Amino acid sequence: MNAPTFSPDVYKSRRALLKNKVASGIILLPANLQSPINYTDNAYAFRQDSTFLYYFGLELDALVGVIDVDNDQEILFGNDSTVDDLVWTGPKPTVQELASQVGIGVSKPLTSLATLLSKATADKRTIHWLAPYRADVAIRLSEWLSLPVQTIQSTPSKSLVNAITEQRIQKSKAEIVELEKAVSVSADMHLMAIRSVQAGMFEYELLSCIEAVAYANNCRTSYPSIVTTNGQTLHNHFYGNKLQEGKMVLCDSGAELPSGYCGDLTRTFPIGKNFTQKQKEVYQIVLNALTVAEGLLKPGVFFKDIHLAACRELTKGLQQLGLMRGDVDESVNAGAHALFFQCGLGHLIGLDVHDMENLGEDHVGYGQEVSRNPAFGIKSLRLARRLQEGFTLTVEPGLYFIPELIDMWRAEKKFESFINYSAAEAYKTFGGIRIEDNLLVTADGSHLLGKPLAKTINEIEGLRT
């Protein structure tokens, strides 16, 4: 197992701040459990719960962190390895040794947790928990708290959710260092993809080149990689297509460090040595939208407004291609551009590739000042709130030519005053293009995270020669 990423003082400081924000009661933060693939002893690669990792820093499964706010006490619950465990896993630190690594002085067997919680309930003390995203954790919480699973899922502590969101959403200097590393490894993964692609390869062969870079840097991928010649499908995890000259690959992949911090980059590049003229025209439109959006990042600006600015830039470009027409603002306000840009511009990034969305996507991404628009396209915007210094996020405009969607909207005569469906016919086999960077919001603008990665047409083609 890896040692905690940060010093004990960092974790102690994080927990102290959480105690101050929550003010009273008992905070209950369970680690994740092993998740079997097809039988108990054959498990998926373990991934720790990000909130547990943030406050307790330990990668091991089946631990529980308890913060008793009223008595200013922190306890790590878990079971020490048995001799039978050691045969299969080798020696592991005791629970008390683990607790000491993250600045906790008290550890107890997991079997004693139910007693502590039962007494707290009898004393009418508030117990704070988060809505679990895994069924096994929901069942454990249900058993410990003697509450139905539905109640566990539907009544998380609002004060705990608010406190964690407020604390984790602005990244510390130490966290930014980790994110810089994660994005740099992610850039190397994409560099390998751009240099390695050849006509005749299968997508899974290119995937193996990309993910080998992650593992060679003691990382894993922060989400299932998207490596596809069908870029019009936003999240395509099929890897069986043969790559053909004249087509493109859309590669959306990122590295996750042992610390849990994630990168999330996308590049689209030709399978041959050069983009076709048609591909260059669409690519430049997307790149222009990326440039406009990144130039608008700064504290105080709503990300929703940046999303809409990118939509207007995409629409201007589509008009130049003859695919759209009419007033740009009216077109975007109506949602006509969503035929070609069906999703949002970006999301927060950190210990989760979509940071803290388990706490509630609207809560984390929208806050109190913005409400989600239910219209097609913009309803998929994951981040809309007012930006603050220390936010880390993705910016990822794209254009996606989905033939089924084009046919459906054309049959419905949808937005005919804005969309030239006759011209769109010629793009139904085009695919899609996305370009994605990861950025830090600074006091006066933004900073590109990680090492630079080719993204202009000339830079991409320069890597293909």
From TrEMBL:
It catalyses: Release of any N-terminal amino acid, including proline, that is linked to proline, even from a dipeptide or tripeptide. Pfam families: AMP_N, Peptidase_M24. Residues 6-138 form the Aminopeptidase P N-terminal domain. Coiled coil: none annotated. One of its GO terms (molecular function) is metalloaminopeptidase activity. GO terms for cellular component: cytosol. It is an enzyme of class 3 (hydrolase). GO terms for biological process: proteolysis. Its cofactor is Mn(2+). InterPro entries: Aminopep_P_N (IPR007865), Creatin/AminoP/Spt16_N (IPR029149), Creatinase/aminopeptidase-like (IPR036005), Pept_M24 (IPR000994), X-Pro_dipept-like (IPR052433). Its EC number is 3.4.11.9. Keywords: Aminopeptidase, Hydrolase, Manganese, Metal-binding, Protease. Belongs to the peptidase M24B family. This is Xaa-Pro aminopeptidase. It comes from Chryseolinea soli.
